From TrEMBL:
Coiled-coil spans in chain: 31-61
Biological source species: Kwoniella pini CBS 10737
Keyword entries, A-Z: Coiled coil
Protein name: Prefoldin, alpha subunit
InterPro entries: Prefoldin (IPR009053), Prefoldin_subunit_alpha (IPR004127)
Pfam families: Prefoldin (PF02996)
Lineage: Eukaryota, Fungi, Dikarya, Basidiomycota, Agaricomycotina
Gene3D superfamilies to which the protein is assigned, alphabetical: 1.10.287.370
Length: 147
């Protein structure tokens, strides 16, 4: 038994080109960017949750001094003594820094994690929708009489 391969009709070939172009130029790059943003959100959430843990460790010190290693940059570390652990400086972004007591800093970090998780959830929903759309386009491309 042999299979007869029918040539693409002009209209189907044209639609296939349009679908393929949309996949390559729009949907796939958008999916890649969405997944990249998801990775960034996961990393940011992890960093802020780590920071919250460190703030909780500082709270246990009850304002006493602490000796620690501090990175200066480029993998260079120095021993440092922090005489007062009641106030820390948070980098809020856009080259903006703010001194906060530990309670304020912890509240800020908790709120920031909530916001980042909502952003992550939005990117996850967008990723799910894009994967669905791509699946629909692949289905349309595989059907000889796509309309």
């Amino acid at each position: 038994m042999s299979t007869v391969i029918k040539p693409l009709t002009g209209m189907h070939a044209e639609r296939s080109q349009v679908y393929t172009a949309h996949l390559q130029n729009s949907l796939l790059p958008e999916l890649e960017m969405t997944r990249h943003n998801l990775m960034i959100m996961e990393n940011d959430i992890s960093e802020y949750e780590n920071l919250r843990g460190k703030i909780e460790e500082l709270e246990k010190l009850d304002g006493n001094s602490i000796e620690t290693l501090t990175e200066m940059g480029a993998g260079i570390w120095v021993e440092a003594k922090i005489p007062d652990t009641n106030v820390i400086t948070l980098d809020l972004g856009y080259d903006l820094h703010m001194d906060m007591n530990l309670k304020e800093a912890k509240e800020y970090v908790i709120k920031k994690v909530e916001i980042l998780k909502r952003k992550r959830d939005n990117f996850s929903k967008k990723e799910e929708f894009l994967v669905w759309q791509i699946g629909q386009f692949h289905g349309a491309l595989s059907q000889p009489d796509a309309r």
